[in-house]
């Protein structure tokens, strides 16, 4: 029978390994929480007058896109909205009198055919490219989905307003959207139309 010499095994390496892992996980969680809180707190706070100007610029950017399609924006405007659940101060980072809103205007253009819709997408792509804006193609929804086969197009225009023409998520109908992004501002907006 062979005997092995007894060695003194210390549990320290395993213990330190577990401690190190826990410390890394805790440190990562703290960094993640800090990044999320900072991201939510981000951006300057606009004065109420600046925010109203931002609303006007958001709507004008969308109206210009609608006009490029040869349509009257006032005849096909669908909604003016401020709601977006990802644009709320859930961590209490904003001070008193500061609120967040995400202004968005949608238009519901009517196209005689799928070919007419695709031509409109091409028109906007060319116009936005001519303005040296970065244009992103939006893939068409798949077979069986609302708006199947209808691709879209998107860009971020002046004043950080995102413009897009694409099938609506819920109805599948073509929708042109001007999204002003999540904005921190003073005051509370009562109406916007």
Give structural notes.
The protein is of the alpha+beta class. 37% of the residues lie in helices and 21% in strands. The protein has a six-stranded antiparallel β-sheet. Strands 1-9-3 form a three-stranded mixed β-sheet.
- Residue share in β-strands: 15-25%
Number of DSSP helical runs? 4
Rg of Cα set:
26 Å
Main beta sheet strand tally, sense and closure: 6 strands, antiparallel
Quick overview of this protein structure:
This protein is an alpha+beta fold and about 190 residues long.
List strands and helices in order, with pairings.
Elements: H1 12-41, E1 45-46, H2 48-68, H3 73-76, E2 77-81, E3 98-101, E4 104-107, H4 114-130, E5 135-138, E6 152-156, E7 162-167, E8 174-179, E9 183-186
Parallel strand pairs: 1-9
Antiparallel strand pairs: 2-4, 3-9, 4-8, 5-6, 6-7, 7-8
Keywords:
single chain, 193 residues, alpha+beta, 37% helix, globular
């Amino acid at each position: 029978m062979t005997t092995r010499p007894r060695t003194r095994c210390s549990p320290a390496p395993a213990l330190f390994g577990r401690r190190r892992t826990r410390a890394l996980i805790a440190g990562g969680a703290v960094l993640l929480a800090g990044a999320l809180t900072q991201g939510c707190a981000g951006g300057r706070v606009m004065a109420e007058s600046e925010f109203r100007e931002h609303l006007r610029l958001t709507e004008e950017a969308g109206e210009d896109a609608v006009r490029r399609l040869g349509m009257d924006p006032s005849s096909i405007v669908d909604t003016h909205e401020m709601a977006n659940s990802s644009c709320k101060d859930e961590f209490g980072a904003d001070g008193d009198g500061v609120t967040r809103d995400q202004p968005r205007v949608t238009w519901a253009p009517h196209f005689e055919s799928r070919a007419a819709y695709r031509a409109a997408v091409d028109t906007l792509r060319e116009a936005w490219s001519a303005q040296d804006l970065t244009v992103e193609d939006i893939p068409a929804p798949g077979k069986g989905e609302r708006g199947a086969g209808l691709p879209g197009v998107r860009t971020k225009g002046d004043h950080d307003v995102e413009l897009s023409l694409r099938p609506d998520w819920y109805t599948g109908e073509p929708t042109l959207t001007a999204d002003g992004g999540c904005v921190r501002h003073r005051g509370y907006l009562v109406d916007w139309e």
